Amino acid sequence: MSKEKIIKILTKNNVKPTLHRIGVMEVLTTLHTHPTADEIFKNVKINYPTISLATVYNTLDILYRNDIIKTMKHNNEPTRYDFFHEPHFHLFDNETFEIYDFKDDELRDLISNHLKDKKIDNHSIKDFDLEIKVSTGNDFFYEETFKLKK
């Protein structure tokens, strides 16, 4: 993603586009591996050698609080970060601990329509995330489970 697009995203979300924030966003929009803060830091440091790990953590917090990125936490694993470029779910591999993006508009619509009718005392549903746990090498599970029947 270009720096100009990153600056537009930050500005649109009322986040001042500093050099370090742009650098963190460059890494998040380039890496599609759901990196940890340490992985982001190592990658940002290549082009922005003066950035500190604390700045990376602070930037990630600002991006998260402004709904620019999402976080994922699994058991004792470090928090992982994902640039929210379009609605998608996550497949979490229990064996390799890898996270894959999974886009399924039909499933999103099905869940969204179901939740519209639900009443939760003193709350309204703003958004929802779905994590689907899978096992490596189990193509049958992936193929058969995620195709919705009409």
Count of separate structural domains:
2
Give the total of beta strands.
5
**Percent in helix:** 40-55%
Q: Would you tell me the structural class of the helices and strands?
A: alpha+beta
According to CATH, the homologous superfamily of the largest domain is Winged helix-like DNA-binding domain superfamily/Winged helix DNA-binding domain
- Report the sheet-strand fraction: 5-15%
CATH topology of the largest domain: Arc Repressor Mutant, subunit A
Arithmetic mean pLDDT:
82
Distance between the termini: 37 Å
User: What is the annotated CATH architecture of the largest domain?
Assistant: Orthogonal Bundle
| Poorly predicted parts | 139-150
Strand order of the largest sheet: 4-3-5
Helical segment tally? 6
Most strands sheet = 3 strands, mixed
CATH class category of the largest domain = Mainly Alpha
H-E order:
HHHHEEEEHEH
Radius of gyration: 17 Å
Label the overall shape: globular
Features:
150 residues, globular, Arc Repressor Mutant, subunit A, two-stranded antiparallel ribbon, single chain, alpha+beta, 2 domains, 3-stranded mixed sheet, disordered C terminus, 14% strand, Dna Ligase, domain 1
Question: What does it look like?
Answer:
It is a single chain. With 150 residues, the chain is an alpha+beta fold. It folds into two domains: 1-84, Orthogonal Bundle (Arc Repressor Mutant, subunit A); 86-150, Dna Ligase, domain 1 (2-Layer Sandwich). The protein has helices at 3-12, 19-30, 37-47, 53-65, 105-116, 139-145, and strands spanning 69-72, 80-83, 89-93, 99-102, 131-134. The protein has a three-stranded mixed β-sheet, with no helix packed on it. Strands 1-2 form a two-stranded antiparallel sheet. Helix 3 packs across helix 4 (53-65). The protein is globular and about 50 Å long.
